[in-house]
Design goal:
Elements lengths: L1 H30 L11 H6 L13 H10 L2 E4 L9 H8 L3 E5 L16 E3 L2 H13 L1 H19 L1 H9 L3
Parallel strand pairs: 1-2, 2-3
Length: 169
């Protein structure tokens, strides 16, 4: 059983990494220096995705990541292990970013919706298309950023989180 599980998890990780790699390739090809992204410099990434690495391991550190995050209006969220979307999505919302994301496989409280809070993709090509849509439409990008700020204030601020946790009605 554990061997089967590990084979399944290994296959899932390969699929996740291949999706991310293809998205990075397409975005780099199309956007050049306007795009910032890549794999953190892990042993696995160095061995398998050498041309798609971030330029330094310092870049992927939390402090530098948050500094970089402030510089870009559009952020990409890809699916992680077990179909999760990861903490980056919440960080993107908290920073009021416009977001391109793989389909969410989880329930999100409130009205957090594709087309309103993020543009959805299921292939690397669609990721590029959705990113281009946000780049080309200042109005769409601004509306999404405003929607994400409103969502953050309504659902993610500490007092709102605590209140919803304590609310038993």
């Amino acid at each position: 059983m554990s061997r089967l599980r590990s084979l399944t998890e290994k296959a899932e990780r390969v699929q996740i990494n291949e999706m991310r790699a293809r998205c990075i390739e397409l975005l780099r090809q199309e956007l050049g220096p306007k795009f910032y992204g890549g794999f953190a410099r892990t042993k696995y990434a160095i061995e398998n995705y050498g041309s798609l690495l971030l330029e330094s391991s310092l870049t992927s550190g939390k402090k530098n990541y948050l500094t970089l995050l402030r510089q870009y209006p559009i952020c990409i969220a890809t699916t992680g292990l077990h179909g999760s979307i990861g903490w980056k999505m919440a960080e993107y919302v908290a920073f009021s970013k416009s977001i391109v994301s793989e389909k969410l496989n989880c329930l999100v409280p409130g009205s957090f919706e594709p087309g309103k809070n993020y543009l959805e993709f299921d292939t690397p090509e669609t990721c590029l298309q959705q990113t281009m849509k946000l780049l080309e439409s200042i109005q769409l990008r601004q509306e999404m950023m405003e929607n994400n700020w409103a969502y953050y204030k309504a659902y993610m601020q500490a007092d709102k989180l605590v209140w919803r946790t304590l609310d038993i009605t």
